[in-house]
Specification:
single chain, alpha+beta, 2 domains, four-stranded antiparallel β-sheet, two-stranded antiparallel sheet, 10 helices, 12 strands, rod-shaped
């Protein structure tokens, strides 16, 4: 091929190679803002030279492939960090809702309701036979129970919402797994033919990162280019073109547990949004509810113990002041007392009715009595501890989320530095390839003139 026609062939190959390079450059520029896109570059190789008596002579250039600039180890690190980010995002959102439920800044919370209740008994101490004071005791008791029930039911509602999020997240996981399996199939078909499925690989990476936010996963690439993805407990979520679905089953508490759709085995979950929702639903909120139950039962027992040993204006005794439980959703003032405030036992003896206030004094003194935490804390101290605990949990979730978000942002920025598109760099490449294209065209033009000259001689 060391001839005029050989030079023409070299020029034609050079034109094709530089045109391919310009196409790839244009593709990079077009995707500068595409999420997860990895910059691509043309790999050019010299064609096999020919050997002559004077030595080897080159035969031009050929495009051997189009590579994406990609760091697979960085991609796996981003996936791992996204798992933890998803968990803390879910916990943060759930616990912030809990914090609003325990909000005491408005002056209408449980703390104020307890204070009003003890103050009402103190007013009754000053006027044990007063109808208005008795009405206030009954009302403040109902208000206290109302606040207990409100907080408890609000927590139950958040718990139910977290349960709904678990089901929704399972659906999201199944959808994302199906998408990855479909992309696996396309990649294998394309790369089996010898081409590189660069754009599809980028798209698959985006889906994998989204999946990692939902549940803890590990993955590896098979020899044919497909991904095999396992859940944290080793179960196969995606294998080649096949995805294995998750499902939910209702447990004895009425909440959804995550299982494999085929076989029904439980899925062990240690990260991702699923873990965050389950932590709030099954650990955090049940703990707060138990604290409220403990506090309400302690107040009920202490108040009833005193009240049942006192006497009302009607001479009646033995009536409990509070009835029901938070768990039973019926905690409140005994209906007999709310229906007849004369049954409120302010007197310590039958003979002391109506002027005796000794029982009301005992009741008012409960405000400062050490009845909680093995008789080391008051009711107010215990509740303030619960509220503080919620604040600490929210602060921890926020801090962990912010740290994890910063970590993921750092890794994303680093990925952009490695794989992202730089418009300045692409403009330089475009100029370089354009110049090479023009030079190749000139070679062809020169050969054309040489041939024209030769033809005219003939």
């Amino acid at each position: 091929m060391a001839s005029i026609y050989g030079i023409l062939h070299i020029g034609r190959q050079a034109l094709a190679a530089q045109q391919e390079a310009l196409n790839v450059t244009a593709h990079n520029i077009a995707n500068v803002n595409t999420e997860g896109y990895s910059r691509q570059r043309v790999v050019m190789e010299t064609t096999a030279p020919i050997t002559t008596v004077t030595g080897q002579i080159g035969t031009g250039v050929v495009v051997s492939g189009v590579e994406r600039v990609y760091d697979k180890y960085l991609a796996k690190q981003i996936s791992n960090e996204n798992e933890t980010l998803g968990r803390w995002e879910a916990e943060k959102n759930g616990l912030e809702r809990v914090e609003v439920v325990f909000n005491e800044t408005s002056g209408y919370g449980l703390n104020q309701a307890m204070s009003d209740f003890w103050d009402a008994w103190q007013d009754l101490v000053n006027n044990p036979s007063g109808a208005a004071e008795r009405e206030m005791v009954a009302w403040s008791g109902e208000n206290l129970a109302l606040n207990f029930n409100r907080i408890y039911n609000d927590l139950s509602q958040i718990q139910n919402d977290m349960n709904s999020y678990v089901s929704q997240t399972v659906d999201d996981i199944n959808f994302k797994a199906e998408q990855i399996a479909g992309i696996n199939e396309k990649i294998v078909k394309i790369e089996t033919s010898g081409a590189n499925a660069n754009d599809l690989r980028d798209e698959r990476d985006v889906w994998v990162n989204e999946l990692a936010k939902m549940i803890d996963i590990t993955y590896h690439e098979e020899g044919n280019g497909s991904f095999t993805i396992e859940s944290g407990d080793g179960g196969i979520l995606v294998e080649g073109a096949t995805s294995n679905a998750l499902a939910t089953v209702t447990n004895g508490s009425g909440f959804e547990d995550v299982v494999w759709a085929v076989g029904g085995a439980a899925v062990a979950i240690s990260d991702g949004k699923l873990k965050g929702y389950l932590e709030v639903r099954d650990t955090a909120i049940p703990g707060y509810k138990l604290d409220l139950e403990e506090l309400s039962e302690a107040i009920k027992d202490a108040v009833n113990d005193i009240h049942q040993n006192g006497y009302g204006l009607d001479g009646d005794t033995g009536d409990p002041f509070f009835a029901g439980t938070l768990a039973g959703n019926d905690f409140g003032v005994n209906s007999d007392i709310s229906g007849d405030v004369n049954k409120i036992a302010a007197s310590g003896t039958l003979e002391g009715v109506p002027g005796d206030n000794s029982n009301a004094i005992k009741m008012a003194e409960l405000q400062n009595a050490l009845k909680m935490n093995s008789d080391t804390a008051t009711f107010d101290d215990f509740y303030n501890g619960v509220v503080s605990g919620v604040g600490v949990d929210v602060q921890q979730a926020n801090s962990s989320y912010n740290h994890q978000e910063a970590m993921v942002n750092y890794l994303d920025d680093y990925r952009e530095a490695v794989s992202g598109v730089s418009l300045d760099e692409e403009m330089v490449n475009m100029l370089q390839f354009e110049t090479a294209y023009q030079a190749a065209a000139r070679v062809i033009s020169s050969v054309d003139k040489i041939l024209e000259t030769l033809m005219s001689i003939v």
